[in-house]
Amino acid sequence: MTHFAGPRTRHSLLVALAILAVVGTVAACSGGAAIGDRQLEPAGNPLPAASAAPAEAPQNDQSGSGSQGGSANGGPPLYDVTRPELLIIKTGQLSLEVQGIDAALAAATGKISTLGGYVSGSERRGDGDQMVATVTYRIPASQWDEALVALRGLATKVLGEQTQTQDVTGQVVDLGARITNLRATEAALQAIMARATKISDVLEVQSQLTDVRGQIEQLSTERQHLTEQAAYSTLTVAYSLKAQAAVVVSQKKFDPNDEIDKASASLVDVLQALVTAGIWFAIVWLPILLVLGIVGVVTFLVLRRLVPRRPDIGPGPGIGPGPGTGPILPAPTEGQP
User: What gap in Å lies between CA 107 and CA 236, rounded to an integer?
Assistant: First the structure.
């Protein structure tokens, strides 16, 4: 093993690490772009022998020019979605009206299982005629159309349908190129560590290795997730019952026995309220009112005795007797009795 001696050797090691990091980054970007362009080239361009046949498409009889290499009016090139190397993530939502929820769920599970799919989640809410069941299926991408046809056959009416697709071919190719370059950087760092003797150099290289390995694991997980999403499509199906007419719903809501029970319950509540009020009045308010009445009478009697009565005042001067008091006699003269 070669031993590093002096700061010059350490400086050379740092320069080598910096060069490896720059080269790895540039190679990852350029490699991913080059491979992505090669994988996503128009179907009219030459393809490998395995995918050359699906690239052909029938001619458009009306336009006279229907090649896959470009549109009839010179627009952007068209791509062949049947190529096996394309990775397409398919998702969809389906709303079905069925005769019975339980029977439809059992039949749908059997059909999806036959196609190689499975149930990844379910939810049920409501009761009676308002019940709605929502189920999420994972279906092999190659069986997507067959699954849609099978599920539509279970419904009395298709209330809604929506599908989306996402091409992740370029992302997966770019991730693969970045992983390859990072693994090359990892190998170079391991070779440098094998020649390092100083603890500081070993720790620095080990830090670079840890960072590179973390990036490799993250990118590998992301690539695997995209691949699995493209291999198994996701379909969410909502099952509901047929909505009943308003007249039928109103008839079902009216129940004479139920109304009698409600009226009886209301009468009992009123009687209970009256009895409760009487009990509270007899036990609580009546004694209070009696005490207040006694206190009021005693207070009135005491005040009546303490306050003196005013004397009667006769008529004032100049006020003669009133009519009907008898005749007015003349005043007696002197010498007369």
Answer: 16
Helix, strand, or coil (residue 72): coil
Q: Residue 133 gets which letter from DSSP?
A: E
Which DSSP string corresponds to 17-64?
A: HHHHHHHHHHHHHHHHHHHHHHHT--TTS---HHHHTTT-----TTTS
Closest CA to 215 of 24, 39, 35, 15: 24
The residue extents of the domains of the chain are 7-78+169-213, 88-167+237-241, 255-298
0.70 exceeded by pTM? no
Number of H helices, E strands in the chain: 9, 5
Assigned token pair, 169:
């071919």
The burial of 248, by beta-carbon neighbours within 10 Å (0-12 exposed, 13-18 middle, 19 or more buried), is given as exposed
CATH 3.90.25 fits 88-167+237-241, yes or no: no
What three-state secondary structure class fits 314? Answer: coil
Output the CA torsion sign for 153, 80, 140, 122. negative
Spatial separation of the C-alpha atoms in residues 263 and 266, rounded to whole Å: 5
Report whether 40 contacts 34 (CB < 8 A): no
d(CA 111, CA 154): 10
Query: Looking at 168-300, which runs of residues are DSSP E strands?
Result: 232-241
Nearest C-alpha neighbor of 96 from the set 147, 155, 137, 153:
155
Residues 215-256 pLDDT 10s: 999 999 999 999 988 899 999 999 998 876 555 445 556 677
Half-sphere exposure of 268 (CA within 13 A, CB side): 6
The sheet with strand 232-241 has its strands ordered as 118-125, 132-140, 232-241, 88-98, 157-167
